[in-house]
Amino acid sequence: MVLILVVFFAIFRGSVQGGLMGVALGLMEDLMTGRFIGINALCKGLLGYIAGVSERNLYKNNFFCTDCGSAGRNISQCTVVLFVQRIDWQ
Fold first, then answer.
1. Distance CA 45, CA 18 (A)
2. Around 53, how many Cα atoms within 13 Å sit in the side-chain half-sphere?
3. DSSP letter string over 18-84?
4. For the purposes of burial, counting CB atoms within 10 Å of the CB of 80, is it exposed (0-12), middle (13-18) or buried (19 or more)?
5. Which of 84, 87, 80, 61 is nearest to 22 (CA)?
6. Is the pTM of this model over 0.90?
7. pLDDT, tens digit only, all 90 positions of the chain
8. Using only C-alpha atoms, what is the Rg of the chain?
9. Do 18 and 51 contact (CB within 8 A), yes or no?
């Protein structure tokens, strides 16, 4: 749910604000879970920045594009988190 908020914020506000929102919300999520401090902040910050870069090229009232972008970013974030957890367990 947090990633969807970050993506929508980045698409409507831009790359810098999207990245900052991603870092802030990711850090709050890290502090609530208490497992890896900073991994969600890093992932959501980068994904917010990348989503914000694409905001100039997207038609903002087409929610299909934002939904597909959000789903793709969600998959990439899950991949990074699982990779980091796998490294930590070994």
1. 7
2. 5
3. HHHHHHHHHHHHHHHH-SSTTHHHHHHHHHHHHHHHGGGTS-TT-HHHHHHHHHHHHHHHHHHHHHH
4. middle
5. 80
6. no
7. 788 888 888 888 888 999 999 999 999 988 888 777 888 888 889 888 988 887 777 656 666 766 777 777 778 777 877 787 777 655
8. 13
9. yes
